[in-house]
Write a structure and sequence with these properties.
Strand content: under 5%
Order of helices and strands: HHHHHHHHHH
Distance between the termini: 56 Å
Largest sheet: none
Radius of gyration: 21 Å
Shape: elongated
Amino acid sequence: EAGTQTTAIAYAKAALEQSEKCGANTQVSASRNLFQTQLKFNNNYEGLRTFFELNSRLERDERWRDVIVNYQLIAAYYESQSLYANAIQYYQKAAALAKSKNKKIDDWAYQTELGSLYSKIGNDSTALENFQKALNLIKESSVKADERRIISYRNIANTYYKLLDFEAAKEANLSALSIMKNYREDERYVNQLNNVGYSYQKLGNSKE
């Protein structure tokens, strides 16, 4: 296995070296592949060094969209390692840079990801704020509007459970169910019926 890891990293390094002859976009892609390969195989120091070297070049060239994507990638890496505070930091850096440079990001995905991370570190009140912001960001015209509202309401319901607000959890689950009325033959609809039933169960237990 160690030999396989070494070989994978060696090829990624060769690709990066060769990419210098192929233009900036190819170099960015090769650099990302190298640091992601290094991080995947727990070569963390080298992987992070590759990441910061790439970011320095991109900042120098004012390639802000690529810097934003890099921050999101490194945040995802930290999340995969259960380093949630680091992940939050880099998602926030990506959003702050996007705002300062007038670059668009998926704000719904950003708020949803932050909510998930805050939930993982036990900061449920802040997680709830992020999930509610995500819900409010959904545009009616979006083809993903229904799907995203369902996800947001479920996230809100689950957070209310953790906050022991079972009435609010029930209402959020009912809101998700109402969106799914046209998907009655879908397994997700069945699961959501179970979620609503569980809400009433928790609500009933809390009143006993």
